Amino acid sequence: MRADDVAVVGGGLHAFGRHEGRTGLDMAEVAVRAALDDAGVRWADVDLAVGGSNVSGKPDSLVARLGLTGLPFTTVRNGCATGGVALATAVSALQSRRAELVVVLGFDAHERGAFAADPAAYGLGEWYASSGLMVTTQYFAMRTRRYQHEHGVSDLALARIASRAFRNGAAHPTAWRRTPWTEEEVLASAPVNDPLTTYMFCQPSQGAVALVLARGDRAADLCPRPVRLASVTQRTRRFGSFEVFSPGLAPDPWHSPSVDAAAAAFAEAGVAPADVQVAQVQDTDSGSELVHLAETGLCAHGAQEQLLADGATDVDGVLPVNTDGGCLANGEPVGASGLRQVHEVVRQLQGRAAGAQVPGGPRVGFTHVYGAPGISACAVLTADAP
Amino acid sequence: MTTTPLEPALFASLDPPRLAGSRCADCGTVTFPAATSCPRCTGQQVLAHVLPDRGTVWSWTVQRFCPKPPYLPPDGGFRPFAVGYVDLGEVLVEARLVAEPEQLSIGAPVRLVLEPAVGVDGAPAVGHAFAPVAEGA
Protein backbone atom coordinates (compact mmCIF):
# COMPACT_ATOMS: atom_id res chain seq x y z
CA MET A 1 0.00 0.00 0.00
CA ARG A 2 1.44 3.35 -1.07
CA ALA A 3 0.92 6.50 1.01
CA ASP A 4 -1.30 8.14 -1.61
CA ASP A 5 -3.45 5.07 -2.24
CA VAL A 6 -7.04 5.19 -1.06
CA ALA A 7 -8.20 2.23 1.01
CA VAL A 8 -11.37 0.90 2.57
CA VAL A 9 -10.65 0.50 6.29
CA GLY A 10 -14.14 -0.25 7.57
CA GLY A 11 -17.56 -1.34 6.42
CA GLY A 12 -21.06 -1.64 7.80
CA LEU A 13 -24.29 -2.88 6.31
CA HIS A 14 -27.93 -2.84 7.35
CA ALA A 15 -29.54 -6.07 6.09
CA PHE A 16 -31.38 -5.67 2.79
CA GLY A 17 -35.04 -6.60 2.47
CA ARG A 18 -38.31 -5.21 3.77
CA HIS A 19 -38.21 -3.48 7.14
CA GLU A 20 -41.66 -2.07 7.90
CA GLY A 21 -41.61 0.96 10.16
CA ARG A 22 -37.94 1.69 9.57
CA THR A 23 -36.87 4.62 7.38
CA GLY A 24 -33.93 4.88 5.05
CA LEU A 25 -32.26 7.25 7.50
CA ASP A 26 -32.78 4.73 10.33
CA MET A 27 -30.98 2.08 8.31
CA ALA A 28 -28.23 4.46 7.23
CA GLU A 29 -27.49 5.30 10.86
CA VAL A 30 -27.13 1.59 11.67
CA ALA A 31 -24.77 1.09 8.71
CA VAL A 32 -22.60 4.11 9.56
CA ARG A 33 -22.24 3.09 13.21
CA ALA A 34 -21.29 -0.44 12.14
CA ALA A 35 -18.70 0.91 9.70
CA LEU A 36 -17.19 3.22 12.33
CA ASP A 37 -16.98 0.30 14.79
CA ASP A 38 -15.39 -1.86 12.10
CA ALA A 39 -12.69 0.76 11.53
CA GLY A 40 -12.33 1.46 15.25
CA VAL A 41 -12.98 5.19 14.83
CA ARG A 42 -15.60 7.66 16.05
CA TRP A 43 -17.87 9.97 14.04
CA ALA A 44 -15.92 12.88 15.56
CA ASP A 45 -12.79 11.55 13.79
CA VAL A 46 -14.44 11.75 10.35
CA ASP A 47 -13.60 14.91 8.45
CA LEU A 48 -15.69 14.50 5.29
CA ALA A 49 -18.78 12.49 4.33
CA VAL A 50 -20.48 11.61 1.04
CA GLY A 51 -23.95 10.10 1.06
CA GLY A 52 -26.49 9.00 -1.51
CA SER A 53 -30.16 8.11 -1.61
CA ASN A 54 -32.35 8.07 -4.67
CA VAL A 55 -35.76 8.55 -3.07
CA SER A 56 -35.57 8.10 0.71
CA GLY A 57 -34.51 11.36 2.27
CA LYS A 58 -31.63 13.75 2.58
CA PRO A 59 -28.40 11.92 3.45
CA ASP A 60 -26.80 15.00 5.03
CA SER A 61 -29.59 15.18 7.60
CA LEU A 62 -27.89 12.18 9.25
CA VAL A 63 -25.55 14.59 11.03
CA ALA A 64 -28.43 15.28 13.45
CA ARG A 65 -28.18 11.65 14.61
CA LEU A 66 -24.46 11.04 14.29
CA GLY A 67 -23.19 14.30 15.73
CA LEU A 68 -23.08 17.96 14.70
CA THR A 69 -19.35 18.16 14.12
CA GLY A 70 -19.57 20.63 11.24
CA LEU A 71 -17.95 18.32 8.70
CA PRO A 72 -18.52 18.88 4.96
CA PHE A 73 -21.16 16.44 3.64
CA THR A 74 -21.76 15.97 -0.08
CA THR A 75 -25.05 14.48 -1.24
CA VAL A 76 -25.16 12.36 -4.41
CA ARG A 77 -28.19 11.27 -6.40
CA ASN A 78 -27.20 9.39 -9.55
CA GLY A 79 -29.75 6.60 -9.86
CA CYS A 80 -28.18 3.15 -9.86
CA ALA A 81 -24.71 4.74 -10.03
CA THR A 82 -25.28 6.64 -6.76
CA GLY A 83 -22.92 4.43 -4.74
CA GLY A 84 -20.21 4.54 -7.37
CA VAL A 85 -20.38 8.31 -7.69
CA ALA A 86 -20.35 8.71 -3.90
CA LEU A 87 -17.26 6.52 -3.78
CA ALA A 88 -15.52 8.45 -6.57
CA THR A 89 -16.29 11.74 -4.79
CA ALA A 90 -14.79 10.43 -1.56
CA VAL A 91 -11.68 9.11 -3.30
CA SER A 92 -10.96 12.45 -4.94
CA ALA A 93 -11.30 14.24 -1.59
CA LEU A 94 -8.69 11.90 -0.10
CA GLN A 95 -6.38 12.08 -3.11
CA SER A 96 -6.45 15.87 -3.09
CA ARG A 97 -5.79 15.85 0.66
CA ARG A 98 -8.95 17.75 1.47
CA ALA A 99 -9.75 15.00 3.97
CA GLU A 100 -8.00 12.32 6.01
CA LEU A 101 -10.88 10.05 7.03
CA VAL A 102 -14.06 9.83 4.96
CA VAL A 103 -17.39 8.06 5.42
CA VAL A 104 -19.30 7.04 2.29
CA LEU A 105 -22.87 5.87 2.72
CA GLY A 106 -25.86 4.91 0.64
CA PHE A 107 -29.42 3.93 1.48
CA ASP A 108 -32.93 3.61 0.16
CA ALA A 109 -36.26 2.26 1.35
CA HIS A 110 -38.44 1.63 -1.69
CA GLU A 111 -42.12 0.79 -1.77
CA ARG A 112 -43.29 -2.60 -2.96
CA GLY A 113 -43.62 -3.39 -6.63
CA ALA A 114 -41.82 -2.25 -9.76
CA PHE A 115 -40.20 1.17 -9.81
CA ALA A 116 -42.50 4.01 -10.87
CA ALA A 117 -40.80 6.58 -13.07
CA ASP A 118 -41.73 10.17 -13.82
CA PRO A 119 -41.33 10.87 -17.55
CA ALA A 120 -40.69 14.58 -17.00
CA ALA A 121 -37.69 13.76 -14.79
CA TYR A 122 -36.14 11.98 -17.78
CA GLY A 123 -37.02 14.72 -20.26
CA LEU A 124 -39.74 12.55 -21.82
CA GLY A 125 -43.35 13.41 -22.67
CA GLU A 126 -46.23 12.17 -20.56
CA TRP A 127 -47.31 10.08 -23.57
CA TYR A 128 -44.38 7.71 -22.99
CA ALA A 129 -45.69 6.60 -19.60
CA SER A 130 -49.34 6.75 -20.72
CA SER A 131 -48.52 4.31 -23.53
CA GLY A 132 -47.31 1.75 -21.00
CA LEU A 133 -43.75 1.93 -22.34
CA MET A 134 -42.01 3.49 -19.32
CA VAL A 135 -41.28 0.24 -17.51
CA THR A 136 -37.69 -0.75 -16.77
CA THR A 137 -38.44 -4.49 -16.85
CA GLN A 138 -39.58 -4.19 -20.50
CA TYR A 139 -36.20 -2.79 -21.43
CA PHE A 140 -34.29 -5.52 -19.63
CA ALA A 141 -36.43 -8.15 -21.36
CA MET A 142 -35.95 -6.68 -24.84
CA ARG A 143 -32.22 -6.27 -24.32
CA THR A 144 -31.98 -9.87 -23.12
CA ARG A 145 -33.97 -11.25 -26.06
CA ARG A 146 -31.86 -9.35 -28.58
CA TYR A 147 -28.64 -10.43 -26.87
CA GLN A 148 -29.74 -14.07 -26.91
CA HIS A 149 -30.58 -13.70 -30.60
CA GLU A 150 -27.21 -12.20 -31.49
CA HIS A 151 -25.00 -14.38 -29.29
CA GLY A 152 -26.89 -17.65 -29.06
CA VAL A 153 -27.43 -17.79 -25.30
CA SER A 154 -30.22 -19.99 -23.92
CA ASP A 155 -32.99 -19.40 -21.39
CA LEU A 156 -31.27 -22.08 -19.27
CA ALA A 157 -28.25 -19.76 -18.94
CA LEU A 158 -30.61 -17.08 -17.59
CA ALA A 159 -31.97 -19.59 -15.08
CA ARG A 160 -28.46 -20.62 -14.05
CA ILE A 161 -27.63 -17.01 -13.19
CA ALA A 162 -30.70 -16.63 -10.97
CA SER A 163 -30.27 -20.03 -9.33
CA ARG A 164 -26.63 -19.28 -8.45
CA ALA A 165 -27.63 -15.90 -7.03
CA PHE A 166 -30.21 -17.52 -4.77
CA ARG A 167 -27.74 -20.23 -3.71
CA ASN A 168 -25.29 -17.50 -2.70
CA GLY A 169 -28.07 -15.56 -0.99
CA ALA A 170 -29.09 -18.64 0.97
CA ALA A 171 -25.58 -18.76 2.44
CA HIS A 172 -25.44 -15.06 3.29
CA PRO A 173 -26.78 -13.79 6.65
CA THR A 174 -27.86 -10.34 5.42
CA ALA A 175 -29.37 -11.37 2.07
CA TRP A 176 -33.12 -10.98 1.58
CA ARG A 177 -34.07 -13.87 -0.76
CA ARG A 178 -32.64 -17.01 0.79
CA THR A 179 -34.59 -19.77 -0.91
CA PRO A 180 -32.20 -21.63 -3.22
CA TRP A 181 -34.55 -21.94 -6.21
CA THR A 182 -33.41 -24.51 -8.74
CA GLU A 183 -32.95 -23.75 -12.43
CA GLU A 184 -36.17 -25.64 -13.17
CA GLU A 185 -38.09 -23.57 -10.61
CA VAL A 186 -36.68 -20.33 -12.03
CA LEU A 187 -37.74 -21.29 -15.55
CA ALA A 188 -41.19 -22.41 -14.36
CA SER A 189 -41.95 -19.21 -12.41
CA ALA A 190 -44.50 -16.85 -13.96
CA PRO A 191 -43.31 -14.76 -16.91
CA VAL A 192 -43.01 -11.04 -16.10
CA ASN A 193 -41.60 -9.69 -19.36
CA ASP A 194 -40.78 -12.57 -21.69
CA PRO A 195 -38.18 -14.13 -21.80
CA LEU A 196 -37.64 -13.10 -18.17
CA THR A 197 -39.61 -14.84 -15.41
CA THR A 198 -40.47 -13.76 -11.86
CA TYR A 199 -37.38 -15.35 -10.28
CA MET A 200 -35.11 -13.78 -12.91
CA PHE A 201 -35.89 -10.30 -11.57
CA CYS A 202 -34.78 -8.56 -8.41
CA GLN A 203 -37.25 -6.38 -6.52
CA PRO A 204 -36.89 -2.86 -5.14
CA SER A 205 -35.99 -3.32 -1.47
CA GLN A 206 -34.64 -1.48 1.56
CA GLY A 207 -31.18 -1.32 3.05
CA ALA A 208 -28.08 0.76 3.76
CA VAL A 209 -24.30 0.43 3.49
CA ALA A 210 -21.46 2.58 4.79
CA LEU A 211 -17.70 2.45 4.24
CA VAL A 212 -14.82 4.22 5.97
CA LEU A 213 -12.01 5.33 3.66
CA ALA A 214 -8.51 6.55 4.44
CA ARG A 215 -5.28 7.17 2.56
CA GLY A 216 -2.67 4.47 2.39
CA ASP A 217 -0.37 6.11 4.95
CA ARG A 218 -3.03 5.69 7.66
CA ALA A 219 -4.80 2.58 6.41
CA ALA A 220 -2.55 0.04 8.11
CA ASP A 221 -3.03 1.75 11.50
CA LEU A 222 -6.81 1.56 11.17
CA CYS A 223 -7.31 -1.86 9.64
CA PRO A 224 -5.32 -5.11 9.71
CA ARG A 225 -6.32 -5.85 6.10
CA PRO A 226 -7.08 -2.60 4.23
CA VAL A 227 -8.37 -2.97 0.66
CA ARG A 228 -7.06 -0.58 -1.97
CA LEU A 229 -9.54 1.21 -4.23
CA ALA A 230 -7.33 0.91 -7.28
CA SER A 231 -9.82 2.78 -9.47
CA VAL A 232 -13.37 4.14 -9.40
CA THR A 233 -14.91 5.32 -12.66
CA GLN A 234 -18.25 6.57 -13.92
CA ARG A 235 -19.54 7.11 -17.47
CA THR A 236 -22.73 8.27 -19.17
CA ARG A 237 -23.98 6.86 -22.45
CA ARG A 238 -22.55 7.69 -25.83
CA PHE A 239 -24.42 7.88 -29.12
CA GLY A 240 -25.51 4.45 -30.23
CA SER A 241 -26.11 2.82 -26.87
CA PHE A 242 -29.23 0.75 -26.14
CA GLU A 243 -30.72 2.37 -23.07
CA VAL A 244 -33.74 2.12 -20.88
CA PHE A 245 -36.46 4.75 -21.45
CA SER A 246 -35.59 5.25 -25.14
CA PRO A 247 -38.60 5.97 -27.41
CA GLY A 248 -36.16 5.77 -30.33
CA LEU A 249 -32.68 4.31 -30.80
CA ALA A 250 -29.87 4.48 -33.35
CA PRO A 251 -29.59 1.38 -35.57
CA ASP A 252 -27.44 -1.46 -34.14
CA PRO A 253 -27.41 0.02 -30.64
CA TRP A 254 -24.88 -1.69 -28.41
CA HIS A 255 -22.22 0.73 -27.22
CA SER A 256 -23.08 0.71 -23.51
CA PRO A 257 -21.60 3.03 -20.87
CA SER A 258 -20.71 -0.19 -19.00
CA VAL A 259 -18.10 -0.86 -21.69
CA ASP A 260 -16.52 2.56 -21.22
CA ALA A 261 -16.67 2.60 -17.40
CA ALA A 262 -15.19 -0.90 -17.08
CA ALA A 263 -12.41 -0.30 -19.61
CA ALA A 264 -11.45 2.93 -17.82
CA ALA A 265 -11.50 1.20 -14.42
CA PHE A 266 -9.20 -1.60 -15.58
CA ALA A 267 -6.84 0.79 -17.37
CA GLU A 268 -6.59 3.14 -14.39
CA ALA A 269 -5.91 0.25 -12.01
CA GLY A 270 -3.42 -1.43 -14.32
CA VAL A 271 -5.38 -4.66 -13.97
CA ALA A 272 -6.72 -6.92 -16.74
CA PRO A 273 -10.24 -8.38 -16.58
CA ALA A 274 -8.65 -11.83 -16.59
CA ASP A 275 -6.91 -10.98 -13.29
CA VAL A 276 -10.24 -10.56 -11.45
CA GLN A 277 -10.78 -13.20 -8.76
CA VAL A 278 -14.12 -12.00 -7.36
CA ALA A 279 -16.63 -9.79 -9.17
CA GLN A 280 -19.92 -8.01 -8.70
CA VAL A 281 -21.88 -7.10 -11.83
CA GLN A 282 -25.28 -5.42 -11.87
CA ASP A 283 -27.94 -8.14 -11.88
CA THR A 284 -31.27 -6.38 -11.62
CA ASP A 285 -32.32 -9.38 -13.71
CA SER A 286 -30.62 -12.47 -15.10
CA GLY A 287 -30.38 -10.90 -18.55
CA SER A 288 -28.52 -7.89 -17.18
CA GLU A 289 -25.85 -10.03 -15.54
CA LEU A 290 -25.58 -12.03 -18.76
CA VAL A 291 -24.92 -8.90 -20.83
CA HIS A 292 -22.75 -7.15 -18.24
CA LEU A 293 -20.37 -10.10 -17.84
CA ALA A 294 -19.27 -9.50 -21.42
CA GLU A 295 -19.63 -5.70 -21.56
CA THR A 296 -17.24 -5.35 -18.61
CA GLY A 297 -14.70 -7.60 -20.33
CA LEU A 298 -14.94 -10.42 -17.79
CA CYS A 299 -15.78 -12.84 -20.64
CA ALA A 300 -16.30 -12.83 -24.41
CA HIS A 301 -19.77 -12.26 -25.86
CA GLY A 302 -21.52 -15.60 -26.01
CA ALA A 303 -19.03 -17.31 -23.69
CA GLN A 304 -21.48 -17.03 -20.79
CA GLU A 305 -23.35 -20.19 -21.82
CA GLN A 306 -20.34 -22.45 -21.21
CA LEU A 307 -19.03 -20.50 -18.19
CA LEU A 308 -22.38 -20.87 -16.45
CA ALA A 309 -22.75 -24.53 -17.42
CA ASP A 310 -19.27 -25.18 -15.99
CA GLY A 311 -20.05 -23.41 -12.70
CA ALA A 312 -17.23 -20.93 -13.38
CA THR A 313 -19.16 -18.08 -11.71
CA ASP A 314 -19.89 -20.07 -8.54
CA VAL A 315 -18.09 -19.13 -5.31
CA ASP A 316 -15.55 -21.93 -5.92
CA GLY A 317 -15.29 -21.30 -9.68
CA VAL A 318 -12.59 -19.47 -11.61
CA LEU A 319 -14.64 -16.25 -11.74
CA PRO A 320 -16.92 -15.99 -8.69
CA VAL A 321 -19.71 -13.51 -9.42
CA ASN A 322 -22.15 -11.83 -7.01
CA THR A 323 -21.01 -13.95 -4.08
CA ASP A 324 -23.59 -12.39 -1.72
CA GLY A 325 -26.43 -13.15 -4.14
CA GLY A 326 -26.27 -9.76 -5.88
CA CYS A 327 -29.39 -7.74 -6.54
CA LEU A 328 -31.34 -10.91 -7.28
CA ALA A 329 -31.03 -12.15 -3.69
CA ASN A 330 -30.69 -8.77 -1.94
CA GLY A 331 -33.15 -6.66 -3.88
CA GLU A 332 -32.19 -3.19 -4.93
CA PRO A 333 -32.26 -0.22 -2.59
CA VAL A 334 -30.90 1.97 -5.36
CA GLY A 335 -28.74 4.30 -3.25
CA ALA A 336 -27.17 1.41 -1.31
CA SER A 337 -26.78 -1.22 -4.01
CA GLY A 338 -23.46 -0.13 -5.49
CA LEU A 339 -21.88 0.15 -2.05
CA ARG A 340 -23.21 -3.32 -1.14
CA GLN A 341 -21.13 -4.63 -4.03
CA VAL A 342 -18.01 -2.88 -2.74
CA HIS A 343 -18.72 -4.01 0.84
CA GLU A 344 -18.98 -7.65 -0.26
CA VAL A 345 -15.84 -7.54 -2.41
CA VAL A 346 -13.88 -5.88 0.44
CA ARG A 347 -14.94 -8.66 2.82
CA GLN A 348 -14.00 -11.30 0.25
CA LEU A 349 -10.54 -9.77 -0.27
CA GLN A 350 -10.10 -9.56 3.51
CA GLY A 351 -10.97 -13.25 3.82
CA ARG A 352 -13.91 -12.58 6.11
CA ALA A 353 -16.96 -12.83 3.87
CA ALA A 354 -20.22 -13.00 5.81
CA GLY A 355 -21.53 -15.70 3.46
CA ALA A 356 -19.61 -18.14 1.34
CA GLN A 357 -15.93 -17.19 1.17
CA VAL A 358 -14.09 -17.44 -2.14
CA PRO A 359 -11.29 -19.95 -1.46
CA GLY A 360 -7.59 -19.38 -2.11
CA GLY A 361 -7.25 -15.81 -0.80
CA PRO A 362 -8.51 -13.64 -3.70
CA ARG A 363 -6.54 -10.40 -4.13
CA VAL A 364 -8.25 -8.66 -7.08
CA GLY A 365 -11.92 -7.66 -7.09
CA PHE A 366 -14.21 -5.74 -9.43
CA THR A 367 -17.61 -4.05 -9.11
CA HIS A 368 -20.02 -2.75 -11.76
CA VAL A 369 -23.35 -0.95 -11.65
CA TYR A 370 -25.52 0.18 -14.53
CA GLY A 371 -28.71 2.18 -14.52
CA ALA A 372 -31.10 4.65 -16.04
CA PRO A 373 -30.74 6.73 -18.12
CA GLY A 374 -27.54 5.09 -19.36
CA ILE A 375 -24.96 5.40 -16.60
CA SER A 376 -22.39 2.99 -15.25
CA ALA A 377 -19.87 3.04 -12.42
CA CYS A 378 -17.07 0.50 -11.90
CA ALA A 379 -14.33 -0.08 -9.35
CA VAL A 380 -11.24 -2.27 -9.14
CA LEU A 381 -10.19 -3.30 -5.63
CA THR A 382 -6.94 -4.98 -4.65
CA ALA A 383 -5.48 -6.42 -1.48
CA ASP A 384 -1.82 -6.92 -0.60
CA ALA A 385 -0.59 -10.38 0.27
CA PRO A 386 -1.23 -11.12 3.96
CA MET B 1 -62.28 5.26 -32.81
CA THR B 2 -61.20 8.70 -31.67
CA THR B 3 -58.23 10.17 -33.49
CA THR B 4 -56.94 12.40 -30.73
CA PRO B 5 -53.28 11.40 -30.40
CA LEU B 6 -51.70 10.92 -26.99
CA GLU B 7 -48.98 13.28 -28.23
CA PRO B 8 -49.61 15.20 -31.49
CA ALA B 9 -45.91 15.99 -31.93
CA LEU B 10 -45.17 12.30 -32.58
CA PHE B 11 -47.15 12.30 -35.83
CA ALA B 12 -46.46 13.84 -39.24
CA SER B 13 -49.95 12.68 -40.26
CA LEU B 14 -52.72 10.57 -38.78
CA ASP B 15 -54.43 9.44 -42.00
CA PRO B 16 -52.44 7.64 -43.16
CA PRO B 17 -50.50 7.33 -39.90
CA ARG B 18 -46.88 8.48 -40.24
CA LEU B 19 -44.42 9.24 -37.46
CA ALA B 20 -42.56 12.54 -37.22
CA GLY B 21 -38.82 12.29 -36.65
CA SER B 22 -35.97 14.65 -37.32
CA ARG B 23 -32.83 14.46 -39.44
CA CYS B 24 -29.54 16.21 -38.79
CA ALA B 25 -28.59 18.52 -41.67
CA ASP B 26 -24.91 17.96 -40.90
CA CYS B 27 -24.48 14.21 -40.33
CA GLY B 28 -27.82 12.78 -41.46
CA THR B 29 -28.64 11.07 -38.16
CA VAL B 30 -32.37 10.37 -37.82
CA THR B 31 -34.00 10.74 -34.41
CA PHE B 32 -37.39 9.77 -32.99
CA PRO B 33 -39.14 11.64 -31.43
CA ALA B 34 -38.03 14.74 -33.32
CA ALA B 35 -35.09 16.39 -31.55
CA THR B 36 -33.91 19.99 -31.50
CA SER B 37 -30.23 19.05 -31.70
CA CYS B 38 -28.33 16.02 -32.98
CA PRO B 39 -27.41 13.46 -30.29
CA ARG B 40 -24.56 12.19 -32.48
CA CYS B 41 -22.68 15.28 -33.74
CA THR B 42 -24.29 17.84 -31.37
CA GLY B 43 -25.27 19.98 -34.39
CA GLN B 44 -28.32 22.20 -34.02
CA GLN B 45 -29.42 22.17 -37.67
CA VAL B 46 -32.12 19.51 -37.58
CA LEU B 47 -34.96 19.16 -40.08
CA ALA B 48 -38.40 17.60 -39.83
CA HIS B 49 -38.33 14.08 -41.24
CA VAL B 50 -41.20 11.67 -41.90
CA LEU B 51 -40.28 8.14 -40.84
CA PRO B 52 -40.91 5.01 -42.92
CA ASP B 53 -44.12 3.24 -41.91
CA ARG B 54 -42.80 -0.28 -42.37
CA GLY B 55 -39.99 -2.13 -40.68
CA THR B 56 -39.06 -5.31 -38.85
CA VAL B 57 -39.20 -6.35 -35.19
CA TRP B 58 -35.75 -5.76 -33.63
CA SER B 59 -36.69 -7.09 -30.19
CA TRP B 60 -39.89 -7.58 -28.24
CA THR B 61 -41.47 -8.62 -24.96
CA VAL B 62 -44.89 -8.95 -23.37
CA GLN B 63 -45.89 -6.57 -20.57
CA ARG B 64 -47.60 -8.98 -18.19
CA PHE B 65 -48.22 -6.72 -15.17
CA CYS B 66 -50.10 -3.42 -15.06
CA PRO B 67 -47.62 -0.51 -15.13
CA LYS B 68 -47.86 2.02 -12.31
CA PRO B 69 -49.52 5.45 -12.91
CA PRO B 70 -49.47 7.70 -14.87
CA TYR B 71 -50.30 4.69 -17.09
CA LEU B 72 -54.03 4.03 -16.88
CA PRO B 73 -55.47 0.65 -17.89
CA PRO B 74 -58.34 0.64 -20.42
CA ASP B 75 -62.00 0.14 -19.51
CA GLY B 76 -62.48 -3.49 -18.58
CA GLY B 77 -59.07 -3.65 -16.88
CA PHE B 78 -55.48 -4.38 -17.73
CA ARG B 79 -54.66 -7.01 -20.31
CA PRO B 80 -51.07 -8.02 -21.16
CA PHE B 81 -49.72 -6.34 -24.28
CA ALA B 82 -46.72 -6.77 -26.54
CA VAL B 83 -44.01 -4.12 -26.85
CA GLY B 84 -41.02 -3.95 -29.13
CA TYR B 85 -38.40 -1.99 -30.98
CA VAL B 86 -39.09 -1.76 -34.71
CA ASP B 87 -36.14 -1.35 -37.07
CA LEU B 88 -37.11 1.24 -39.67
CA GLY B 89 -33.62 1.15 -41.20
CA GLU B 90 -32.62 4.67 -40.28
CA VAL B 91 -33.85 4.51 -36.70
CA LEU B 92 -35.41 2.06 -34.20
CA VAL B 93 -38.79 3.05 -32.77
CA GLU B 94 -40.19 1.69 -29.52
CA ALA B 95 -43.91 0.97 -29.69
CA ARG B 96 -46.69 -1.31 -28.64
CA LEU B 97 -47.14 -4.26 -30.97
CA VAL B 98 -50.70 -5.22 -31.92
CA ALA B 99 -50.01 -8.94 -32.02
CA GLU B 100 -50.24 -12.15 -30.06
CA PRO B 101 -46.88 -13.41 -28.74
CA GLU B 102 -46.92 -16.38 -31.13
CA GLN B 103 -47.03 -13.93 -34.08
CA LEU B 104 -43.84 -12.22 -32.95
CA SER B 105 -40.22 -12.98 -33.73
CA ILE B 106 -37.11 -10.92 -34.36
CA GLY B 107 -37.13 -9.91 -38.03
CA ALA B 108 -40.92 -10.18 -38.46
CA PRO B 109 -42.26 -7.49 -40.86
CA VAL B 110 -44.61 -4.92 -39.29
CA ARG B 111 -46.37 -1.71 -40.31
CA LEU B 112 -47.41 1.41 -38.42
CA VAL B 113 -51.00 1.53 -37.10
CA LEU B 114 -52.96 3.61 -34.62
CA GLU B 115 -54.03 1.88 -31.44
CA PRO B 116 -56.60 3.01 -28.85
CA ALA B 117 -54.95 4.40 -25.73
CA VAL B 118 -55.96 6.13 -22.50
CA GLY B 119 -54.91 9.78 -22.20
CA VAL B 120 -53.47 11.44 -19.12
CA ASP B 121 -56.93 12.58 -18.00
CA GLY B 122 -58.52 9.20 -18.74
CA ALA B 123 -59.96 10.42 -22.05
CA PRO B 124 -59.81 8.09 -25.08
CA ALA B 125 -56.88 8.71 -27.41
CA VAL B 126 -54.72 6.94 -29.97
CA GLY B 127 -51.07 6.05 -29.89
CA HIS B 128 -48.57 4.70 -32.40
CA ALA B 129 -48.19 0.94 -32.65
CA PHE B 130 -47.01 -1.63 -35.16
CA ALA B 131 -48.89 -4.67 -36.46
CA PRO B 132 -47.65 -7.74 -38.33
CA VAL B 133 -47.95 -7.80 -42.11
CA ALA B 134 -47.86 -10.85 -44.30
CA GLU B 135 -44.68 -11.19 -46.40
CA GLY B 136 -45.10 -9.26 -49.66
CA ALA B 137 -48.25 -7.48 -48.46
Automatic annotation (TrEMBL), chain A:
Residues 252-380 form the Thiolase C-terminal domain. SUPFAM superfamilies: Thiolase-like. Residues 6-173 form the Thiolase N-terminal domain. Gene3D superfamilies: 3.40.47.10. One of its GO terms (molecular function) is acyltransferase activity, transferring groups other than amino-acyl groups. This is Thiolase family protein. It comes from Goekera deserti. The lineage of its organism: Bacteria, Bacillati, Actinomycetota, Actinomycetes, Geodermatophilales.
